[in-house]
Amino acid sequence: MVNVLTRDINRRIGRAMHTYNMLADGDRVLVAVSGGVDSLVLAWLLEFWQQKAPISYDVIALHVDMEPDNGQPGTSARAIKQQLDRLKIQSAVIPTQWQSPKSVIGSDLSTKNVCYRCARRRRKQLFDFAGKQNFTKIALGHHQDDIVETFFINLCFAGNISTMVPRQDLFNGRLSLIRPLAYLSKTDIYTVADRLKIDPVRSSCPLSEQTGRMEVRHILDNLYASIPGSRSKIFAALGNVRHGYLLKQKETGKAAGDEE
Questions:
Q1: Which residues in 88-164 belong to E strands, given as ranges?
Q2: Model pLDDT for residues 46-76, shown as the tens digit of each residue
Q3: What is the number of other CB atoms lying within 10 angstroms of the CB of residue 255?
Q4: φ, ψ for residue 131 (rounded to 5)?
């Protein structure tokens, strides 16, 4: 397991951890595991990092089961639990409190509303679980590509300049969201997953391939192919904002330049 991380990947993980002060002695870290490669690699990473960190912290992985089976974990949840057990990571599975309608595709329900409601309910379950079990950090598997995609999603669909940040403190500092993979690309994470023999568990979401994020991802893939190095330049730009060269923010009404 020692050779799973290359020197470069290990360095960038350490830089993200240090820059955003992600872990502290005595932390209880809840890793949100969806079944994708990103969150499974993150769970392993935080467990592995304990061996070299100069601090002591606890790690537990949590999966919110979107398809429970008569009070028992569903097929996907069992597959995820098996992988976590193989990696020797303590874990828990809880059933979802809300399921997206199976007939959403082609219905009057908008993709945006369903995704928002689903994400909000799952996030609430994470917060509730973390609060009851006295966790101080929730670790999420978002990486560099996710951060860039979120910037463009907010730019194109919400009309604001923002993205997800590597650390976000909530509830007056009682709980923090951390993203230790923030400086890694999706390709980096797949490299680690391949060495760990981690297999992603397919999402049961009926809209997983039909979201605004997927549209933005396809556009960015074309951009990266057309302009070499643009991925890293865009990511760097998110920390190099020249406020004096942006438009003045309007307090109410339409944004500057909107057509009537």
A1: 91-95, 137-139
A2: 999 998 899 999 999 999 998 888 888 999 9
A3: 10
A4: -65, -45
Q: Please tell me the CATH code under which domain 2-239 is placed.
A: 3.40.50.620
CA max distance for the chain: 60
The answer to whether 92 touches 62, Cβ cutoff 8 Å, is yes
Q: What's the whole-model pTM score?
A: 0.88
Q: Is the dihedral of CA 109, 110, 111, 114 positive or negative?
A: negative
> Mind listing the pLDDT tens digit for each residue in 101-119?
554 445 445 556 666 677 7
Give the C-alpha separation, 162 to 173, whole Å.
21
Q: Tell me how far apart the alpha carbons of residues 88 and 4 are, in angstroms, rounded to a whole number.
A: 16
Domain boundaries, the chain: 2-239
Q: Are 198 and 44 in contact (CB under 8 A)?
A: yes
Cα(138)–Cα(175) distance, integer angstroms: 7
User: 153: which residues sit within 8 A by CB, 6+ positions away?
Assistant: 212, 213, 216
The DSSP code for 72 is B
How far apart (Å, rounded) are the C-alpha atoms in residues 240 and 245? 12
